[in-house]
Amino acid sequence: MTETIAQYFVDNFSDVLSDELIVFIVSLLPILELRGGLIVAKLLEVSFFKAFIICFIGNLLPVPFILLFIRRIFSLLKKIRFVNQLIDRLETRSVRKAENVKKYRLWGLFLFVAIPLPGTGAWTGALVADLLDIRIKHSLPTIALGVFVAGILISAFSYGLLGLIGI
Predict the structure, then answer these.
(1) How much is the pLDDT for 34?
(2) Based on the domain organization, do 90 and 101 belong to the same domain?
(3) Do 112 and 120 contact (CB within 8 A), yes or no?
């Protein structure tokens, strides 16, 4: 699914926006995040190091805002009837994911963000950290490290780095 969405961005925006800006925007988005950004970067033939830096920064940029403001934003959005159900589902899903992280706290949060599976990443990790009341001074560096490791893992596949090291 990520590949299909990534291809959509390449097909529809490469004539209008610079390759680097497309990669940055995709990296900002929930669900796609760094993983989708790296796929888009590869499709647009952006060099690995440039792509990695752009994706890393793009993926981390929303995290402090999520950690600081998500409860207030959810509280305001719950006042809108048709959005209330969506927020409730998102919170319920995040609470279920938080159960996996709760036992190991920071290590659990790191692994949750670092292992590139659907539904895990910086956005959901920040939401889980907030639900578990993990302070921003601990959660932000943990999420950043998880994003970095996820980036390395995804890069190994999307940029063929495994072939470079003989695996």
Answers:
(1) 94
(2) yes
(3) yes
